[in-house]
Write a structure and sequence with these properties.
Layout (H helix, E strand, L loop, with lengths): L1 H37 L3 E3 L8 E6 L2 E10 L5 E9 L7 E5 L10 E2 L8 H6 E5 L2 H7 L2 H11 L7 E6 L2 E6 L6 H21 L4 E4 L2 E4 L16 E4 L5 E3 H7 L12 E3 L3
Antiparallel strand pairs: 1-2, 2-3, 3-4, 4-9, 5-7, 5-8, 6-7, 8-9, 10-11, 12-13, 12-14
Length: 264
């Protein structure tokens, strides 16, 4: 009798384990499926050998978000967003202090920007082109990296540019919808802020860098012309008419209703 009870308990435990794995993977896949639907891309579901992933274009730029496991070198489980970057000659690494050495041959970069001294204490920055990196890592970029660090803060954060790709990596699997959504949104906003620093014709407005030429409005996706307004929350420029039409900021996940006027 005792043997039968033990057998039944073992069977029940196995069934519970299988169900938890099944429903856990279903929830995990659902988080990435939501990303694919939101950005009009393709969803790659998880199976026994492969974690979920999503691929899509962000402002006509190829992008992929995935979970993967690395068995050699810097081993562990990771969640990563990769998006194409126009500077193929630039190699850049930003990681939290104490996470170990980065790629060999890169020079440490000392950021000399107002308001980012604490950032330099918390993050190590290295690059093969330090002068370009100092412009690229603007105060807005530093702020956005801090937002990314708040998504599952117990895991490490690593940002890199290498061979024409910008990669944002967390050293853990992100499984629930809210965490995956925040990670993707903040990573794409980091891409926007970095791209902003490369634009010619930069002006300063209330200590925030704003590009005045070749900047696309997130509502109409066209070059901004005429009256220009900026979201007071995420600092994204818009056409004034587009803001009035949309009634709020056009950046995904922002939805701020207030703006400041930049152009006449």
């Amino acid at each position: 009798m005792a043997g039968l009870i033990f057998f039944l308990v073992m069977v029940a435990g196995v069934i519970c384990f299988v169900l938890s794995v099944f429903f856990g993977k279903a929830t995990w896949s659902s988080a990435f499926e939501q990303i694919a639907l939101r950005y009009g891309g393709l969803f790659h579901s998880a199976n026994m050998f492969r974690p979920p992933a999503a691929t899509f274009n962000y402002k006509q730029t190829p992008c992929r978000v995935r979970c993967f496991r690395r068995r050699f070198g810097n081993r562990g489980r990771f969640t990563e967003l990769r998006i194409a970057w126009p500077m193929r000659d630039l190699c850049l690494e930003i990681h939290q202090q104490g996470q170990g050495p980065g790629k060999r041959g890169l020079q440490p970069v000392a950021l000399a920007l107002t308001g980012v001294s604490t950032f330099s204490q918390r993050y190590a920055v290295s690059s093969n082109i330090p002068e370009r990196t100092m412009r690229l890592v603007s105060p807005a970029v530093c702020w956005q990296i801090d937002q990314l660090a708040k998504v599952k803060p117990e895991s490490g954060l690593f940002v890199s540019i290498d061979r024409g790709w910008l990669a944002v990596t967390r050293s853990s699997y992100l499984r629930n919808k809210e965490a995956v959504d925040d990670f993707v949104r903040f990573a794409l906003e980091l891409y926007d802020h970095m791209a902003l620093t490369m634009t010619e014709g930069i002006e300063f407005h209330d200590d925030v860098i704003v590009a005045m030429d070749n900047m696309k409005c997130p509502v109409c996706s066209c070059d901004i012309e005429g009256r220009l307004v900026m979201c007071v929350r995420c600092k994204t420029p818009h056409c004034h008419d587009c803001w009035l039409y949309n009634g709020k900021c056009g950046m995904y996940g922002c939805s701020e209703a207030r703006y400041s006027m930049l152009g006449g």
